[in-house]
Write a structure and sequence with these properties.
It contains 26 helices and 17 strands. It is of the alpha+beta class and 634 residues long. The strands form 3 sheets. Strands 2-3-1-9-8-10 form a 6-stranded antiparallel β-sheet, covered by helices on one side. It has a 6-stranded antiparallel β-sheet with strand order 4-5-6-7-11-12, with helices on one face. Strand 6 and strand 7 form a beta hairpin.
């Protein structure tokens, strides 16, 4: 796990061998690689590479930039290739001078060219300069676990692991209006957009070649296809799932340093920690949890403790306070690069801080909800569709999951989501499936007069939403697959941004075993009535691995992610309310062009429900605006 920054100069410009640009970019991402720094400028001054390293594999010889023996290729790379041992054998052991996975990627590109990405199993962002062809190769892993951003200015093409490294080189700093519409709708950006105009995200599962003076031409190399397999029995799916997930965890445990695990108290992280403990049954195994001391609804450490006691793990619990929020929220937004995915990034930052005090590598459960159906809104939306199907007499047409009668016993899961349901059904029932899911995930209509009507164009956002929801790789008959696919392509990358930034803020590599492409490809073929029978969220996953989880975790129906008591702090007054009042109450904040006239900060503060996220969205956006748009020296 590392970070990189590079530039490809236009043909009319050469990079000095002691390029100050490299130092500027690397300084802004130094936290990603505290173990070493490397720089290289090509002899003709066309390209410059910079790299900061967090040493995980081949601690002594894996430094970057790394060059091929003939000097033609130079690589900088961020991530881990978990099948690097198998690829070494396939390429030929005699080729290698180190034991690093970086050299494996380099030789794989030499051997297979751009097709090498199809051989790689892991998380990666790659940049390789080909001196013979005078072109740059860029690639990003299938799921976007590892970040890669780029910007084309009047002088050069820049690329980096984080947006902040690009900012000093932009011709100007302004907010991308289309991305802002995405943000207020979903709290993340769709496609290649970022909130910073002129800075772009390389999409997951894409590669590109870049020549001097040109923008990258992206090419998709992988897609997940929801082609339901009706030929196999549930027993076959059970055994195959068991095999694939155990294999993924085993591969993700490869490291020359100690590996631990997050344990949130939910199914996903607890299961991965349990399977990891099986891989390394002897010696200590460290697990990490965070809690707020504001009531049991914000403290799930009891579930993490049940797992740790059963599996003989060393549990480290981070006690997170209101003062921690005041002290660290600005740092959270700075490390995030741009606000995304809700307030869970703050406690994730605090737990990762504790992880960094003990180990360098940690497993996380991202992906489980999107792959196996873990979000309560799936149940809410499907319940409505089942009722509609029963009324219309079409309940058993196509790939329906369950009847409304069988869902009813599991509706207890929705107990804490009554405000969401009230909003969802306030606009009527039984509309088109894309319109209904849009209403369920759209947050913009909850801001009311807070947002200026002309500030966002939801028509364009809705059209982009529909193009993803009705993707050509998803069958039209399965509502369940359409919902999970949209979240897989949009929400998951936002959550992975949080996972990457909050861990790397503390020099920690976060690995996500659910996002192993053989497992994801398999999961997309499982019939929905096996994954989601009777409306039980993540039903198959829990059934297959029930013996790996304590009953307290296996039988939970109240998991809500990582709730933050932000709105409770605000209502009772204190340092958090004072901070937010100062940030959002300033003249500069109150006159942002995306806000409505006469914004009352007290009205915003007092209108929040216990788990409302609008205040978080406004606070995060304002802090980002101050740090990255207003402050041109950042």
């Amino acid at each position: 796990m590392c970070g990189f920054f590079g530039l490809l100069a236009d043909r009319s410009r050469a990079i000095d061998q002691s390029s100050a640009d490299l130092d500027v970019g690397l300084t802004l991402i130094r936290h990603r690689g505290p173990d070493g720094t490397g720089k290289w400028v090509s002899p003709n001054g066309q390209v410059g590479f910079g790299h900061v390293r967090l040493s995980i594999i081949d601690l002594e010889k894996g430094a970057q930039p790394m060059h091929s023996d003939d000097g033609r290729y130079t690589i900088i790379y961020n991530g881990e290739i978990f099948n690097y041992i198998e690829l070494r054998a396939e390429l030929g052991e005699s080729l290698f001078r180190t034991h690093s996975d970086t050299e494996v990627v380099l030789h794989a590109f030499q051997c297979w060219g751009a097709d090498c990405v199809n051989k790689l199993r892991g998380m990666f962002a790659i940049a390789i300069w080909d001196a013979a062809e005078q072109r740059l190769f860029l690639a990003r892993d299938r799921f976007g676990i590892k970040p890669l951003y780029w910007a084309k200015t009047s002088q050069s093409f820049y690329f980096a692991s984080e947006i902040k490294a690009l900012l000093p080189f932009l011709d100007r700093r302004s907010v991308n209006s289309a991305a802002l519409s995405d943000y207020f709708t979903f709290q993340f950006c769709l496609g290649e957009k970022t909130l910073m105009d002129g800075a772009w995200q390389m999409p997951a599962a894409h590669f590109a070649f870049v020549t001097p003076g040109q923008k990258p031409q992206m090419q998709r190399y992988w897609e997940v296809h929801y082609e339901v397999d009706y030929d196999h029995t549930e027993q076959w799916f059970t055994e195959r799932l068991r095999q694939l997930l155990q294999d993924s965890v085993h591969m993700h445990m490869r490291a020359d340093v100690e590996v631990g695990s997050y344990v949130s108290g939910g199914v996903d992280s607890s299961l991965l920690a349990s399977l990891a403990r099986e891989v390394r049954p002897d010696g200590p195994f460290k697990a990490f949890n965070g809690r707020f001391m504001d009531g049991l609804e914000f403290d799930e450490s009891r579930y993490a403790k049940a797992l740790a006691d059963e599996q003989n793990m060393q549990l480290h619990v981070a006690d997170i306070s209101e003062q921690d929020f005041v002290d660290h929220i600005a740092k959270v937004i700075w490390h995030l690069d741009q606000p995304t995915a809700g307030p869970g990034s703050f406690p994730q930052y605090m737990v990762s801080k504790q992880v960094g005090e003990h180990i360098k590598v940690v497993l996380g459960g991202q992906g489980g909800d999107e792959i196996f159906g873990g979000y309560a809104r799936y149940l809410a939306a499907y319940f409505e569709q089942c009722i509609k199907g029963a009324i219309d007499g079409t309940l058993h047409n196509g790939n329906y999951v369950v009847s409304y009668e069988s869902i009813i016993p599991n509706l207890e899961t929705l107990r804490q989501y009554k405000p969401m349901l009230r909003e969802f059904w306030s606009g009527g029932l039984f509309g088109e499936r894309d319109e209904r899911y849009w209403r369920l995930v759209n947050r913009a209509n909850t801001f009311g007069i807070i947002l200026a009507p002309e500030a966002i164009d939801q028509r364009a956002t809705f059209e982009e939403f529909k193009s993803i929801f009705w993707g050509s790789n998803v069958g039209k008959e399965s509502y369940f697959d359409s919902m999970t696919h949209f979240d897989f392509k949009t929400l998951l990358p936002a959550l992975l941004q949080v996972e990457d930034r909050m861990s790397m803020a503390h020099g920690v590599e976060a690995r996500v075993p659910f996002l192993d492409h053989p497992l994801v490809e398999f999961a997309a073929t499982i019939p929905a009535d096996i994954k989601f029978r009777n409306g039980e969220l993540k039903r198959l996953l829990k059934a297959v691995f029930s013996n790996h989880l304590p009953a307290a975790i296996r039988d939970r129906k109240d998991k809500m992610g990582f709730p933050v008591p932000l709105n409770l702090w605000l209502k009772r007054g204190g340092p958090a309310r004072d901070l937010i009042g100062d940030v959002l109450g300033s003249q500069r904040a109150r006159t942002r062009p995306y806000l409505g006239n006469g914004l009352s900060i007290d009205a915003v503060l007092d209108s929040q429900s216990a788990y409302g996220r609008n205040l978080w969205a406004l606070l995060s956006l304002e802090l980002w605006h101050q740090q990255f748009v207003d402050n041109t020296g950042a």
